[in-house]
Amino acid sequence: DVITVGELAKRMGVKANELIRELMRQGSMVTINHPLDFETAAILASEFHYEVENVAFDEETVLAHAGEKLGEEAKTGDLKPRPPVVTIMGHVDHGKTSLLDAIRAANVTAGEAGGITQHIGAYDVELDGRKITFLDTPGHEAFTAMRARGAKVTDIVILVVAADDGVMPQTKEAINHSKAAGVPIIIAVNKIDKPEANPERVKQELTEFELVPEEWGGETIFVEVSAKKQTNLDQLLEMILLQAEVMELKADPDKRGKGTIVEARLDKGRGPVATVLVQEGTLKIGDPIVSGVHFGRVRTMTDDRGSRVEAAGPSMPVEVTGLSGVPDAGEMFHAVEDEKVAKDVAQHRQQKLREAELAKTSKISLEQLYARIKEGDVKELKVIVKGDVQGSVEAVKDALLKLSTDACRLVVIHTGVGGIIESDVTLAAASDAIVLGFNVRPEPKASTLAENEGVDIRMYNIIYDAVADVRDAMEGLLAPTL
Ligand code: GDP
């Protein structure tokens, strides 16, 4: 880690000139912006009786301080209820987009800007004065890609299942992705207007995934809807609000704003434009912000109806301009005390990114697993199993589950028939899991992603080999691959 003379001085609370003088005494002529390596900084700090480990730029501390309460009179612990943030998932063609559009259309009143809405990646609706925020990139890919970056945005998942089609492969994936994230699921049984609709069959099929309706003694909320006919949409919103109430979702609106980038792009006229979801505090026009390696000042904020807003509180999505570059979806953003801090944090991250490029880190591989089990950091090995036929997937899964021991539990977080796809890799990356392929190969895009994310994919043709490798890893006997 590198720190400049000026930064080090600030951190130690001494004048930069004093440090420069001391460095000159030691024989180096430097300016205030001169970067110091760890060793030099440590030696210099010790001359002033400072602890060596504190010399590195501490992003956490800087950002924690930036998030402190604004205003002298504000008290801590002023948590106020906030709207739930919802993602819609489900199999292709089951009606995710239709449902998002129908809920939105039902909520835009005729008088409002001619009912014109903007697609900014998220919107909010109101039911009897209570708000709900919808992320309008449906599907589990975006959800899990965000989670792989450490973002926890979604409070509740709406799983859409078409009543004429039932549980399909992506339904199952969506369930596993939601469960892996620990997010509660509400089932929207869609297309009930169709003559061939069979909602009871959907309920029956979902019991297999421990999603049991309340009328059958379970705890899962089911709502039968039709996106096409706009049937029971208010009931769905009501159930979301009910679930949110149970969850007691709260945030403190009086802090500086922080949250997650939902999507971002480069606009020809306006420069980088990012849709942000405020999760804590309130973001205001003019706030200095930092997101990933980009920084700037909030120039404009626009809501999903194209209206200018001055401030955005918890769970409110707004489109923001004023950043120096286009951040990635899923990246955090923080409002900070001044633009200098924003710039420092962004530059420090750029530096770290360069260092990380040099020493590519990986998530988890079977080889690393044993070391981590021994150190006691891993109590669970999470596995995704893909195979050519259902029978072999089940056989591998059953054999693997028998390997669980007291020291290390084996959990199969997802299984599926077919090649290893990107969504398997994002799930693995988000959950620190490994992927086992049985008589299948990864798709090229999935391989590239696995390489970038450091996800371990292993291919087998013989069940015994797969099981033996995992057992050996758990017992620390594994010979490295290649
Ligand atoms: P997505 O792939 O999950 O986003 O599904 P879409 O929203 O694109 O819907 C797929 C198809 O199902 C479209 O042709 C929709 O018009 C149709 N659809 C969606 N919801 C309903 C519904 O409630 N009833 C009927 N009859 N058709 C629907």
TrEMBL record:
Binding site for GTP: 90-97, 136-140, 190-193
Keyword terms: Cytoplasm, GTP-binding, Initiation factor, Nucleotide-binding, Protein biosynthesis
Location of this chain's protein in the cell: Cytoplasm
Keyword match Acetylation: no
Domain Tr-type G span(s) in chain numbering: 81-250
Region (G-domain): 84-232
Free-text function comment from the UniProt entry: One of the essential components for the initiation of protein synthesis. Protects formylmethionyl-tRNA from spontaneous hydrolysis and promotes its binding to the 30S ribosomal subunits. Also involved in the hydrolysis of GTP during the formation of the 70S ribosomal complex.
Similarity comment: Belongs to the TRAFAC class translation factor GTPase superfamily. Classic translation factor GTPase family. IF-2 subfamily.
Protein name: Translation initiation factor IF-2
Gene (name only): infB
